Fold each of these.
Amino acid sequence: MRITVLSGGVGGARFTRGLLALLRDRLPDGAGGTTADVTVVANTGDDLWLHGVRVCPDLDTLMYTLGGAVHEDQGWGRRDESTRVAADLAAYGLGWEWFTLGDLDLATHLARTELLRRGLPLSAVTARLAERWQPGVTLLPMSDEEVETHVVTDAGTIHFEEWWVRHRAAVPARGFVQAGVERARPAPGVLDALATADVVVVPPSNPVVSVGTVLGVPGVRDALRATAAPVVAVSPVVGGAPVRGMADACLAAIGVATDAVAVARHYGRRADGGVLDAWLVDDADAAAVPALAAEGWAVASAPTLMTDVPATAAIAARALALVDRLP
Ligand code: GDP
Ligand code: CA
């Protein structure tokens, strides 16, 4: 069983952790793991150079969450973290004071930057960092090339993290630009993971700046459209709101309403030129099921709040069960 997940940070990481719990239960390998083979393709559009180090927020969230080191309440960063270095950097008035680099987290960025400077591509660096954390999946960046999401505002174009963290997405976004995407190629293993999957899962990640960014890498959308595997997704919008974060501001910027039906139609069914086959909505959006079913979607509702690992494993089970409803 090969499963490929297209992921952002917190939403994708939490979902994948639940998926792994489900697989360990259903397809145990006898050693506490699973015989299933899970590959996660991570958004790297949020990546940035800061204080001379390369920061990869979504890859790190995945690595820490799946490796059991994440700051659970926060959803990202390391648990038992401190910020002494960041406080001292601020005393120099350099960098972005509103983007906190934790002391332990900084070790990850230093290690990554060192390996990049030795000439390793990001995919190899990611594999090397993951040796320590043993995330239980093959973790791939969407691309080895630097692709950064920039946000077009009336006051100019800024890095996505500046818009998201500093401005809390409150400055109206007129659009998003994937700087560098035209020369980006999918990282080694990405297209293969899509072509050889038994099922592809799009977790409840931000459809615009997480999954949308991965789909923007030349070749990824075509690979998703071409794979023989069913493509199932979980709605990141529950009852007309993103559960956490400001994904509604991203959707508004591209003219998509923040509701489970509009996001499904934005992705589109593969049979109609889109990228998905099946869509799991929250029970709060159960009213959306008949309309989407009439359009040909394999669709159902379920509780989709990722409150803990067992609840998230149950969401993954409901999403995978949609495969049986496909023609
Ligand atoms: P980020 O890169 O850290 O922003 O994380 P992702 O892009 O992977 O996921 C963020 C999205 O996950 C948010 O925009 C929410 O819409 C969605 N999300 C977060 N928690 C939940 C949850 O418990 N249930 C569902 N259905 N969606 C969630
Ligand atoms: Ca992110």
Note: Residues 56 and 67 are 16 Å apart (CA to CA).
Amino acid sequence: MTLGIDTSGIGKKIFDLAAEIFPICRSITGTGVRETLGILGLHIPLEMREVPTGTKVFDWTVPKEWNIRDAYIKDTSGRRIVDFNDSNLHVVSYSRPLRATLPLSELRKHIHVLPDQPSLIPYRTSYYSETWGFCMADDQLRSLPDGNYEVLIDATLDDGHLSYGECVLQGESAEEILLSAHVCHPSLADDNCSGLAVLTMLAAALKDMPTHYTYRFLFAPGTIGAITWLALNENRASNIKGGLVVSCLGDGGGPTYKKSRRGDHYIDKVMAHVLEHFSPSGTVIEFSPYGYDERQYCSPGFNLPVGLLQRSQFGKFPEYHTSADNLDFIKPEHLDASFRILINAIEIIEHDRRYVNLFPKCEPQLGRRGLYNAIGGDKDAPSKNMAMLWLLNLSDGQHSLLDIANRAKIPFTMIRNTADLLVREGLLE
Ligand code: ZN
């Protein structure tokens, strides 16, 4: 890595961090978010922001704070047949507090199951309507006898705060690269403990490194968090040169890059290049106004150059938003690969520049300078020679190294290393 980042064992480190935050019951507000940010903040300089309930943020209002201590469904013998302590997915996120005894026929109206995946617990939320509910395996619901059930949701919905975390790594330039992950899902590993852990380890790797751009890492609850950040930072948004929302970075699918709304922005070119050369199984898909917080960053009033990086696409894998999105579903090697995609993208963003060929009239004599032979016997020699010829041909002050790499279909790293050689030889400046 030319950024000098030590990536040895990084997949395992990311996995361990994801595993540490996995059990926490997060939602769009509440102590679960704060606790998660507290753990991420042990690795990076993370500022926690607290925005009061009722704050107007564009067309939205910061909601009440939701906190939950316990929840269960007990049968007539007093046994907990559904227990929040076994899985926080059992309670619909943002459920209002409740203590009641109900017949199964009434209780059923508030129970969510997945008939097509009868052994899994679904993940459900009720953020903007005051209701309550439980989630359980369809197999279990079918096995319940009729009768009365005691139901408790020991939760509070009060005025409080929306919390988000921000880590800003100042570079030479005020221009920023935004890296954003949602922090509002409870025990779901791929969506999105993986994204939180990958970005935290990326920030940890970059934090002591001199960079040209400023890197802003944002860990905010989905939708309302990004809207809140944009509302409070409207004047900063124009500094964002490019950005990525990340999610689902630990599974074995993809990788997938969804373009920004602009579609042909610099970040889109960088990500297309990285996927083509470093992740041959990767695909690039067009923007759509559905997904994660790129929806907010790419809303027409901002139209920021922010795309979405995932491995498997959300909603398209069977584990998505179910209890099967657990720590068995994500793997260190996939987290490692996702980390490397981001590092490769940052390498390009940091080192891309335009050069001028100092010998533009006909080709300079490379053999005399020992440049053709400098790499004799090297299996990469033919592409290195091509890299040299492309660089000399296109370094007219108009084409950047990435433009040249794309035109030549040669990885950016090789183009960049060859450019360094030609600069040392006095052929480029
Ligand atoms: Zn989700």
Note: The pocket of zinc ion is lined by residues 185, 191, 321 (CB under 6 Å).
